[in-house]
User: What shape does this take?
Amino acid sequence: MKSSSLTTVSVLLLATFACIDPAQGDGPPAFIEKTFPAQGLDSAWDTYQSVFLDEEGALDMRTKELIALSISAQVPCDYCVYYHTKASKAHGATDAQIKEALAAGALVRKWSTMLNGSQYDPAQWRREVDALFSE
Assistant: This one.
């Protein structure tokens, strides 16, 4: 259960930080400085920048925004959904891509709920997934 709680906290932090406009300058926006604990602000901001604002990263900005939108809708965070819808479109996402990203996020949550709620055997699950992706 501890791992699940840590994952939830990580997703919430990502969704919160993902509401940041990269054009806002070098430091975190005022709403983060006013709401995030001071002792963790610098490291949290550095981590956010190194992943989310790195245009040279493995994922393009549109893909990052679509992922953030999908997560934001699942958290749910109205602030983040609003921002990431705008940001996704600004980075070239179509309405069809936005709908598909949202549907993918919804399906992940649905099947996570079904597997966890049913207490499906993890070893059996891994065997089935491995078989799906074997050559």
